[in-house]
Amino acid sequence: MLNDGGRKVVIFIGELRKSLRSLGIGIVVSTLVIFFLTPDLLRVVQHHLADKLYFFTVAGPFLAHVKLAAFAALYVLMPWMMAVFWRAMGKPFGVEGWQIFFFAFFTTLLFYAGTLFCYLLTLPFGIQFLLGFSSEELRPVISISRFVNFVTLFILAFGIIFQLPVFMVFIARVGVCSRSFFQRKRKYALLAISLIAAILTPTPDIVNMMLMAVPLYLLYESGIVILLLMRVK
To answer: What is the pLDDT of residue 5?
Structure first.
């Protein structure tokens, strides 16, 4: 016999599976379409973040374009993915209707806000710092494959962690944690955020860590404020 937690997991997975096929097809089709646009997309990203890129294997440029197209497909389809995720997430807890729309809309909004914050602020500072160690004797030779992996990983990571307040609201709404729990655990949240910032930021300097840690802690506090306004204890 499954306990209550086990039943919720089974319901979540079962609901998620209903949309996985169509979502998978959508990602594949979008990747194929966007693939033909990746030269222009890579040119824009390269102009913003790097100078010259190189490749060291025959298949390197092709695989880099495939990865970039797959990332762009996920980026474009994020509203759909969030709708699918929250519909499945809300099912075992009886959360539905406008509440699902609320969670899907705001997680998508915060995801895009996090990715733009990373692309426009954190990555340029981080890459500039790392390339600052070059010299006349030490010239940077950046692989296109490593560059695409580096950029897409950090942009995706920032997009995910910026969704923190919405998840705080959800787990408080369904009774997993209370608002007072988040208020009592501020110091632990600050420690966890500092560790996450130290791991995920592309450079070890304090400026780049603060560029991630400060917004993330503000998002944590905003989650508490939202719960307060919603009168969730």
So the answer is: 64
